[in-house]
Amino acid sequence: MNNRIQWIDASKGIGIFLVVIGHTMLQGELRGQIYAFHMPLFFFMSGFLFSNRKYPHLKGFIQAKAKSLLIPYVSFSVISILLMKMFELEVIDIPNLIQTFLLSERNGIYFNQPLWFLTSLFTIEIIFYLLVKYVKKMSFIMLLTMEMSLFSVTVLDAAAGTNILPWSFDQSLYFLFYFSMGYMLKTSKTLTGSLKKSPLLIGASTLYIVFLIDDRIYPKVFQLVMGPTWQVYDYFFLYLSNIVWAVIAIFFVIYLSQFLSLAVLEFLGKNSLILLALHISLGFNLINHIGAVELQTWISNPNALGLTYTILTIILLTPVIFILNTFFPIILGKTGKSHHKNEGLTPNKNKNIV
Fold first, then answer.
1. Within a domain: residue 250?
2. Peptide bond into 95 cis (omega under 30)
3. What is the pLDDT of residues 143-157, one digit of tens each?
4. Domain range spanning residue 143?
């Protein structure tokens, strides 16, 4: 019996594909559209899969999350440093490396930028555990997480990323809202059963497509809904506008996944952690050292070149995925054959969001 919800793996597969291609040489509007929602999507899905049922005490929950998130962070940091040394042949500044590793700041992990997600998600999981345990009421939790998110933007300038805190904590506060929304939609059973006829997903997907076709419509609609207060509180409504856009894009991906539950997408989703951790440090570096000049000669369009990099990276990492899952599951925060089991949802279950 299949013990995973296929649309979750498919959505994660779409998400990690966007993460990889977003780190290539894409240009213009396409890159902007991807960055508008690809990380909110992963935090949303993490919240959807959140479960504290096995952990009545915070200590046990922290230990579990340290195993599933911090062990991969440490493992892939070590692997990335070794790969950096192999590919770049530079002398490693040990004090700077240790500082970078310990701080784990978004855009600051020079040996492997995407690893910030793991420590950020760890802090989000702990905060949300406490909210669920002590606040309990979902409406209050949503209000609190929105306030934390707004605080991160207005005070910590998280959206601009100019003052990144250790373990990307400013980013954690910002993305906490998406995490809580994912959990709310799970507990409210909004995303259960057959979703192909879901009014929520159909409506959001329709809006998203319309707004993509003509990018002038969304700001006009948003300003019309918000009324004259838009001009008075423009900073807040810009923040709110970004959230609404990301949410309808997330719903579009979820709806799309109902029709694209392909084996390749599910494979990408199930192994999104490895793809996140190695697509730059191993995948891109291999391509750059083997045939980057030839590729750039054959493919002049940067977006087409980015797509080629993405596909080649996935192909190159496929045997690595097999090796890690089969022989080194501990690197992924798993032990033995237990990594085939899942928790967090019933009757079909998924875990390990990235």
1. no
2. no
3. 999 999 999 998 898
4. 6-194+258-340
